[in-house]
Write a structure and sequence with these properties.
With 309 residues, this protein is of the alpha/beta class. The chain has nine helices and 13 strands. The longest helix is centred in the N-terminal third of the chain and has 22 residues. The termini are far apart.
Length: 309
C-alpha cells in the first residue's frame, strides 16, 4: 500500500515508517522538522518537507496514496497550557487540514494518534473508550477535539478512520518532552550522570507502552480496518513514576536514591491506565514487557551519549 505519514521524522512517526517499510509498503514522510530529525527517517522512505497547517504548499508533490497516518502534533502538556492557541492550531486545525488533504490524495483510510490525556483524572481504572472524557489540560482538549473531527469527517465522506488513544509511549529516539517523556528524561539524566527529577510524590501511575508495539498498532488490519472507531493502545499495567525510576536505576546500575524532588507539573493527571479490551477485540495486543523495552531504551540513550563525547 502507498502510505503517507505526517510527523514521520519524529519519535513515533519514525518507528511507524520503519515498520511500514518492513511490511512492504511504499512510504512517504511529510515533516517540517520542527520536532523531528531528518536522520530519523529511513533512507528507503521518500521525504517531503512540509507543514500540516499549509498542505497547499506540498500536496501537489505527493501523488495518490492509499492511507494517511497523521502523527504530526504538538505533544507537550506544559506547552499547551502556556500557548493554547498554537496547541489548538496544530492538533485540531492540523488534523482537519489533513482530513481534507486525504480527500485530495484519494486515500480511503485515515489513522491518527490521540492520547490518554483526553480522559483526565478518573476515580476508577482502567479506562475504556466508552468513559466520559474530561481533559484537565488544553493538550487533552485539543486531542479530543481532533478525534471528533476525524469521526465526523469519516461519517460524511465514507472514510475508513481509526483513532488510537495512546497510553504513555516510550522507546528509542524519544525526546525529553511530551506525555511519555519521563522515560526519556530519566534515561538521558542517567546517561549524563545527572540526578533525575521526580515530580511530586512519585506515586503517579502511568501505563507505559513500547513504541514498537505502537508502530504495529498503526499498521494493524490495513486490509480490513473495520468501522470507524477509537481504540486504546496500552498495556493495562499501572507503573508508578518511582517504580519506573527504580527499575531503570537497576538496569543502568545507578543508585536507587539518586534523584531530586521537583514540583508537580501543571496539567498532569495523577493516574492513567487504559483498558485493552476493545483493542483485543480488534485483534491487537502489545508484545513488549516493560523491563525489555526499558533495557532497549536505556541502551539507545547510553550509546547516544557515548557517541556524543
Amino acid at each position: 500500500m502507498r502510505v503517507l505519514i505526517t510527523g514521520g521524522a519524529g519519535f513515533i512517526g519514525s518507528h511507524v515508517s520503519e515498520e511500514a517499510l518492513e511490511q512492504g509498503h511504499e512510504v512517504t514522510v511529510v515533516d517540517n522538522l520542527s520536532q523531528g530529525l531528518r536522520e530519523n527517517i529511513p533512507p528507503q522512505a521518500r521525504f517531503v518537507y512540509g507543514d500540516i497547517l499549509h498542505p497547499e504548499h506540498w500536496l501537489s508533490t505527493i501523488g495518490p496514496v492509499d492511507i494517511v497516518i497523521h502523527l504530526a502534533a504538538q505533544i507537550s502538556v506544559p506547552v499547551s497550557e502556556k500557548d493554547p492557541l498554537t496547541d489548538f492550531r496544530v492538533n485540531a486545525e492540523g488534523t482537519l487540514r489533513m482530513l481534507m488533504a486525504t480527500q485530495e490524495l484519494g486515500a480511503g483510510q485515515f489513522r491518527t494518534a490521540s492520547s490518554a490525556a483526553v480522559y483526565g483524572d478518573a476515580d476508577h481504572l482502567p479506562l475504556s473508550e466508552e468513559e466520559r472524557v474530561h481533559p484537565v489540560a488544553f493538550y487533552g482538549l485539543s486531542k479530543h477535539t481532533a478525534e471528533q473531527y476525524v469521526l465526523h469527517f469519516a461519517s460524511k465522506q465514507d472514510l475508513k478512520a481509526v483513532v488510537l488513544r495512546l497510553a504513555n509511549v516510550y522507546g528509542p529516539r524519544q525526546r525529553t518532552q511530551g506525555e511519555g517523556g519521563v522515560v526519556a528524561v530519566f534515561c538521558e539524566s542517567m546517561a549524563q550522570d545527572r540526578l533525575p527529577e521526580i515530580h511530586g510524590d512519585g506515586q503517579q501511575s502511568r501505563d507505559f507502552v513500547y513504541v514498537g508495539d505502537v508502530a504495529r498498532a498503526f499498521l494493524h488490519r490495513l486490509q480490513n480496518p473495520g468501522s470507524p472507531a477509537v481504540y486504546n493502545v496500552s498495556t493495562e499495567i499501572p507503573t508508578t513514576v518511582f517504580d519506573l525510576f527504580t527499575t531503570l536505576s537497576k538496569i543502568a546500575g545507578k543508585p536507587q536514591d539518586g534523584f531530586r524532588r521537583a514540583p508537580v507539573r501543571i496539567g498532569d493527571i495523577h493516574d492513567s491506565v487504559l483498558s485493552q479490551n476493545k483493542a483485543k477485540s480488534w485483534g491487537f495486543e502489545p508484545q513488549t514487557l516493560l523491563r525489555d523495552g526499558l533495557w532497549t531504551t536505556w541502551k539507545y540513550f547510553l550509546n547516544r551519549e557515548l557517541h556524543a563525547e
